[in-house]
Automatic annotation (TrEMBL):
<dbReference type="GO" id="GO:0006107">
    <property type="term" value="P:oxaloacetate metabolic process"/>
</dbReference>
<feature type="binding site">
    <location>
        <position position="185"/>
    </location>
    <ligand>
        <name>substrate</name>
    </ligand>
</feature>
<feature type="binding site">
    <location>
        <position position="185"/>
    </location>
    <ligand>
        <name>Mg(2+)</name>
    </ligand>
</feature>
<feature type="domain" description="HpcH/HpaI aldolase/citrate lyase">
    <location>
        <begin position="56"/>
        <end position="283"/>
    </location>
</feature>
<keyword id="KW-0479">Metal-binding</keyword>
<dbReference type="GO" id="GO:0016829">
    <property type="term" value="F:lyase activity"/>
</dbReference>
<protein>
    <submittedName>
        <fullName>Citrate lyase subunit beta-like protein</fullName>
    </submittedName>
</protein>
<feature type="binding site">
    <location>
        <position position="212"/>
    </location>
    <ligand>
        <name>Mg(2+)</name>
    </ligand>
</feature>
<dbReference type="InterPro" id="IPR040442">
    <property type="entry name" value="Pyrv_kinase-like_dom_sf"/>
</dbReference>
<dbReference type="InterPro" id="IPR005000">
    <property type="entry name" value="Aldolase/citrate-lyase_domain"/>
</dbReference>
<dbReference type="GO" id="GO:0000287">
    <property type="term" value="F:magnesium ion binding"/>
</dbReference>
<dbReference type="Pfam" id="PF03328">
    <property type="entry name" value="HpcH_HpaI"/>
</dbReference>
<keyword id="KW-0460">Magnesium</keyword>
<feature type="binding site">
    <location>
        <position position="124"/>
    </location>
    <ligand>
        <name>substrate</name>
    </ligand>
</feature>
<keyword id="KW-0456">Lyase</keyword>
<dbReference type="InterPro" id="IPR011206">
    <property type="entry name" value="Citrate_lyase_beta/mcl1/mcl2"/>
</dbReference>
<dbReference type="InterPro" id="IPR015813">
    <property type="entry name" value="Pyrv/PenolPyrv_kinase-like_dom"/>
</dbReference>
Amino acid sequence: MLESGLRSFAACQAAFTALPHRTCPSPTSFISRRARRPYSAHPVSPGLPTAQTPQRALLYVPGSNEKALKKALGGGLTGEDVPDVVTLDLEDSVRTEKKSEARRLVREALESAPDDLKSKRFVRINPGQAGLDDLEAVLKSRRIDGLILPKVNTAQDLLAVHDFIDRHSPHAEHKSSLRLVASIESPKALLNMQEIASCSDKVGGLLFGAEDYCAASRLIRTPSRREMLFARSSIVTIAHAYGLAAIDLVCVKYKGDEAQQILEDECKEGREMGFTGKQAIHPAQVSTIQRAFAPSPAEIERAQAILAQYAEASSIGAGAYGLRNADGGVDMIDAPMLLQAQSIIAQAEAAGLL
């Protein structure tokens, strides 16, 4: 079934490249051409999905905790506890008087990490001048894949980091491959997301900083998370419009059966909303997040069936067909459903499930 589905996927590509796409005017005319994202001055048009490196669980590790750093980057996390991204944190989890020491520890941890580490290595820096001090330290290491930028309120906040990397990094690869993930933590940031998402070719994702956003917006945090629906939906919409990762909020509870149930509910909700991953504050959360933000076996099987049958229908000139479900019901399958099926296969491949 898998081989048939993938052959069908390839057979359908030619037909779908002819589909019309529409784009919107760029919201970033005020940003210099030098810093602009060269391939997406306009939002990314919907098209055939491609497998990308997944960023499902982003595990934060305090930069001042030497033992935790060694565990996260030295092979202490194994099996399902290995996150797609380890984020060495220099911001909220590090006290002010420990910042300088944490920079040293993080740089040393990056340098000593094994070459075959499965996780991508990110660093969350501080906002403002303290963040530039962080960069001066961590950019000395080649072994850094991305940066989490907190409290990004405008495109200029992100461009300050972009420019610092280009001017001061001693490693040429940082200028082309280092990914920046902007943390959306305020109403101002929410209103400026289009400019933030498209201002630099280094932008790789948008992340929701729920607690700071609630504080800045005077939202009352509730178990339903209903009060954050608009902000979260907006982040997902802008992220996908520009072809970026969309990283959901932290589950602040991490011990006990109740915490596990809350985490599972948040993961299910986040993926249904369109988020591609979720932040984690404890290794115990990683396996749940990794599983939740990857297609299930049932989803993969259904996607393969859609690909196979759509190719057959197309060969006889049919634009749509009925797909019979396990319960005996029939779903109408057409072009948009094919795109969804292709996306599921791409996600499964990226997660190593196919």
